[in-house]
Protein 1
Amino acid sequence: MLIILMDDQIFDPEQVCQSCVLASNSGEPRWHGGQLVCGQAIRKFAEQRSEQYECVMGFRIAHIK
């Protein structure tokens, strides 16, 4: 599951990504082969933390397994 983190709030990607030109036709982040295609991976600080990415719009996206 992908979530968007902003300060102290969590958003569903469909709420944010619908206005992005890089989003899929369904308004979701482009996720392919276990990687976020429309952003860059952010280095993990601890092994137990979720994978995090920064999209081109500047939002932080977390992949919760």
Note: The helical segments are 13-17.
Protein 2
Amino acid sequence: MKKVKVTILSAVICMLLVFPSWASTSNVLKQPEVALQNDVTKAEVTKWYYRNIDGVKEKRLWSITYGYWKTEWMPV
């Protein structure tokens, strides 16, 4: 009986020593992916709007990304 307990205890200790190395390997593989996603810089999206006032064509730049006018009306 004592021999069986020692064998089971040895097996459990071996499993506990081996398992953390598997867990740490999977975490190491996931960390660079998260770091790459956070380092991505996206360009601002803008659009020019045009109007015709008394025969004078004007344009103004709108930021689609942030939702505000980037310029005043200016002649083209």
Note: The chain has a mean pLDDT of 80.
Protein 3
Amino acid sequence: MTTTRPAVASDAELDHWRTVAERVAATLGEDALERDRRGDDPTVELDQLRESGLVDLLHPAEFGGGGGHWQSALLAVRILSRTDASVAQVLAYHYINSSNIGFAAPEADRADWYRRTTAGHWLWGDSVNPVDPDLLLTPADGGFRLNGRKRFSTGASSGDVVLAAARIEGGDRDGETVFVVLDHDRAGIHYLGDWDALGQRLSASGSVDFVDVAVDPADILGSLGDGPFQNLITPGIQLAFGNIYLGIAEGALEQGLEIARARKNSWFLSGADLYRNDPFVQRVVGEFSSGIAAVEALADRAARRFDETVSLGDAVTAEQRGRIEIEIAKLKVVSTDLGVEVANRIFEITGSSSAKASVGLDLFWRNVRTHTLHDPVDYKKLEVGAWELNGELQPLSLYT
């Protein structure tokens, strides 16, 4: 990914996208709970992402994009997660999916992909889940036919295009795994709408069936290779996860503080005049606020280092890729613990009345508890420990 822009985001860039994301987050927060209960695909909400420019944030400015950096994109994901972690997840996956233009597409093809993406303000969904059996591409009629099913296809049912990972079976490219990009309404693509998790309900993460879908050679974005640069996609998605969990913790604390401040009495044994003056309430708030500040610092540092690594392009070495993966694994560990704890224990500072369904404080816990199960955090701890003890890195994959 050759570029002459600065390797990292400027303060002005970060401030700009922070303002944009905060505006969108405020709008999403107005009815996030009601939309969660309806369980609709986030069609209208994704239009807000397009109109705000967030969808095009990472695309190069010379092709009509926002020209932003990963740190800006992930800050936007974090801010949206404070009010609507489902829509934030769709945006995060879009950033990862569409970044494969730079990571996987041949250099000669990238300009065309970028121009079409920005011209249509495409939101990229995915159907890549590596733990499912491969989708199969079989040669036919000068192109291919795509068949199979993928679960957990975030954004596919609501996005403009679907990025799918498929293995070619037969022909000159037999055995090769490639990314294909298909328009949402391509004949033979069936969105099953079977996502029924307790959280992240609006992330459009249901299964997709592909039944004899016609795939033109021009629909193939590139191969899923084993080079260090191409495989930066995995630390990228894990970095997005860390920011989602952090944003959920921030949002839970923010709503908890609003509830605690509004309470007009205190626990009868506390001796305090107001709930907000109870020393035990203050202790928990201090604990949460301090933990959030620490994880924020790590998230920002990791994002900046990720930008620096990505800026190296094909010159990225296996060691450099490994080091950024370990940095991000550390964030995954602490952001998971923080997100789950804050979303769970926030009720300790808000009192029993905050458990009413109408308050909706449970939304944060349901969202973070659901998504933190994406891949076992214990294996991230193992990854960090094996590196610290023995200098060992895990094999390259879509999880490590």
Note: The chain is about 50% helix and 10% strand.
Protein 4
Amino acid sequence: MRTRDAIINKLREAFFPESLDVVDESHLHEGHAGHREGGETHFRVYIVSPAFEGKSRIERHRMINATLAGELASTVHALAIHAHAPGEKRG
């Protein structure tokens, strides 16, 4: 299974998001630390889930990082997170 697909599956199972977009930005990091041929090393996650209601930005990031601990310990070098609760202003 591709890394992007694994990330999507794990986030869906853990957070039941209203919306989820996982973008592979590896091509933007060619020549930088952690980049590998074939990509799938640098990702940006946009997620909206009721699971984040009442949680701080740091708590949300920790929740996502814990869910993706296996990927972060192996194939994923960098993960940018945009996590919101439903109805929150995104900015």
Note: The first strand starts at residue 19 and ends at 24.
